[in-house]
Fold these 2 entries.
Entry 1:
Amino acid sequence: MNVFARTDIGLVRKENEDYIFASREPVGPLKNLFMVADGMGGHRGGEFASRCVVEQMIRHIRESRKANPVSVLNDAIQEANQVLRNKAFENPELWEMGTTLVAATIDGATMFVANIGDSRLYLLEEGRHLRQVTRDHSWVEEMVADGKMQRDSESYWEKKNIITRAVGIDKTVTADFFEIDLNPGERILLCSDGLTNMVEDDEIERTLSRPEPLEELGTELVEEGKNNGGRDNISVILVEPDLDEVNIC
């Protein structure tokens, strides 16, 4: 399994509120684990929230005795949500902090994905077709689904950063889960919206379709986001499963 992971502060923000984790080695019952969190909140609350949630999830998963990846991830998310809320109650400066989360683990030919908010996971199918697996939990996407707004319109981009679901905001949080069958030659991208707000999907597709090593392609995506303005923190995790880890038949 080839893996590339990088987070960059960008060109405008004073702090990096993204936090990432990438392990091709087992974490508790999970055979590998990849996570991107994008925090929000004043007084450095966003920076604290993303780190806290990822680190708390890692601790929980390492101690988990469950076997089902979805159950393992969901339990970890719920515990991290409660821990973050408790931290906010203890420190008024962290009140209303929260974080998006996209997480993935691969077991044989199957990938299990969890997402909350607007950090995304993409799959490059057949080595050339980019598909967004996750669905953004954002106000504009709800308007699009209801037929009240056109995607990529001016009003869409003006309000795109209003998310409707995040870890740490409510007593309970609901993650969307996806179970994806993998095929040889596919590549996986987890990223924060600091990338997708700066680099169009078709450009991401063209980049990931090239045969260069993941380190070169991932670095190019981050730099492209910065060249286009770098208005937010940019996080990228690229995963290329080994052929013997997917169903070749």
Entry 2:
Amino acid sequence: MQLRQLEYFLAIWEAGSFSGAAARLYVTQPSLSQQIGTLEKELGAVLLERGRQGVTLTPAGRVFLAKAQDVVRAVRDAQDSVREVVEGRKGDVHVLTVRSVASGILPPSAARWHSQYPSTVLRLHDYSHRRDLEEAIRGGQGDIAVGPRPDAWEGPVVSLGYEEMVVIGQAEYTAESAAEPTELAVADWVLYEPEQGMSQVADRMAGHFGFTPRAVARTGQVSAALLFAVEGIGLAVTPENAVPLRWSRHARRIGPGLFRELVVYSRKLPSQLAERYRDMLTSLELPLTAEQDLPEGAMRC
């Protein structure tokens, strides 16, 4: 049984004759009759009877009519739904990211997205480590990823800019203050557990300055590291965009500046909806620094 045969059957019933249906469908009447004959043979029942007043339904045809209408309607609904997704009018966009980016970078884009595409759903999935993020997008668990630039990535990658890493502690400083390597080397540190991606940032910072940080506390959450540091337990390194405004005077630049590039990437060309979200991110004024605006001597992690 083919969808075309169901559509032919319904067209004959609606037109009231084979000739009228053939004209509406732009097919020959013999071809139309052949398709209905094949359908009736497969069902083992006559569906339509020709008469002087046109075509009427047999008892089997009346039963079959409602079922054929349901099937054709369901197929057309499915086609419309797919078309809406392809055209970007409806659907879900699965965005994978790391936690600090989810809270500090993406909220403005979510608000803009909702205002422009209210019939779609933006689904955000966050991960603790960039490694987990890369594995998830490589495994097809999302449409696009937003996070640190992946190593040796084969799919599309678009740069968004650089987020600055700062050091935070109990003392308050002016906006121009910077923490020097000698101070960092002798300080107590609130470090991150290995499964937290910021642990890699802290390790690269310490390696760049040539010291091993003395850990007095470890945590798997950036928010907890911030609380511990402000309470005076030790220093912590964190993305600047993750520092609440009320604690901004506790944060300082690290030497000439420590930055991490953030990019949007995917395993293959993203869907139309995901591509629109990617383009929106590149057009927004995000709390990131353009490469040409990085301070002289800035470090990258």
